[in-house]
Amino acid sequence: MKRIxxxxxxxxxxxxxAAIRAVVRTGLYRGWEVFGVRQGYAxxxxxxxxxxxxxxxxxxxxxxxxxxxxxxSPDFEREVGREKAxxxxxxxxxxxxxxxxxxxxxxGAHKLSQMGFPVVGVASTIDNDLVGTDISxxxxxxxxxxxxxxxxxxxxxxxHQRAFLVEVMGRQCGYLALMAGLAGGAEAVVIPEVETxxxxxxxxxxxxxxxxxxxxxxxxxxxxxxxxxxxxxxxxEHRDTLGFELRVTTLxxxxxxxxxxxxxxxxxxxLGAGATEALDRxxxxxxxxxxxGEVTMTPLAEVVGKQKPLDLRLxxxxxxxxx
Length: 323
Ligand code: ADP
Ligand code: F6P
Prior knowledge:
Blueprint: E1 3-9, H1 16-29, E2 33-37, H2 40-45, E3 49-51, H3 79-91, E4 96-101, H4 103-114, E5 119-123, H5 139-160, E6 162-168, H6 175-184, E7 188-190, H7 198-210, E8 216-221, H8 228-237, E9 245-250, H9 262-280, E10 286-291, E11 294-299, H10 300-303, H11 313-321
Parallel strand pairs: 1-2, 1-4, 4-5, 5-10, 6-8, 6-9, 7-8
Antiparallel strand pairs: 2-3, 10-11
The structure holds adenosine-5'-diphosphate (ADP) and 6-O-phosphono-beta-D-fructofuranose (F6P).
Adenosine-5'-diphosphate binds next to helix 4.
């Protein structure tokens, strides 16, 4: 009999519940006992875990957030915190831990695995900054939420001939901004990976105004040097350079909330199931991700501390299409 524990960590993402359900039910199917750890690594450090039955994960597939709760735990970043967590796992005779989370969470998972404990990561973050997967749980839903907001903003922007700066999340990664800009028909996209000169952006907006455009939309990543607030502050000084009147909308946590879409439900279900399959094969110290349409395992050592490259050719395509 195997005893496994599962936790969700870092920023929550739509689809985490679908992944928990898949882990619990495929684990039970294999005859294992499955324990749920509350509040990510913070709960692990104090040994907060309870058994999960098939009924405990009923009706959660379509729910946003995470029934286990999530947290950022600075204590787990210190060896003493990780030792405490390991102590609880051993005391409760847990054979393996599944970590559903993003970049930071998988760094923690790797450190625990380096201490000799079997860990399997499941790629989940709206930021899509995790190496070892083409796309993480939550990204598609977050993008669709951003797009709905962009579509709505465009109608009011057109009525008033305004330019909007729409700030999306993503930490230091510009993926959400780039894709929201591409799918939302943005005039321009500002991302951390490429420095944007605000004067050049102003010239582009002015040119769009002079071409007779009714609105202009710029998607700005929160991690960019000129995020929405900084860009707006810059334009405040040069208001007449734009042509358009300017407004700013910061989408914030609305992007992480609510029900996962079909893509995230299926992705989360496949990755959760992939994680117990990996354990069944005796594989651990890996991240379960989705590469080229397949569920894949990548050693955590190859995942952590890496920067995921963006397809920067899309920036040019966005400019071409904005004509
Ligand atoms: P995400 O997993 O969404 O990227 P964070 O970066 O906040 O979210 O990381 C979540 C948690 O993972 C942190 O609160 C911490 O407990 C753990 N973690 C992050 N970085 C490290 C690290 N370098 N060493 C150990 N644990 C870490
Ligand atoms: O990592 C997910 C994320 O939503 C980032 O995009 C954002 O920068 C951060 O979490 C916000 O963190 P918090 O929920 O702690 O405010």
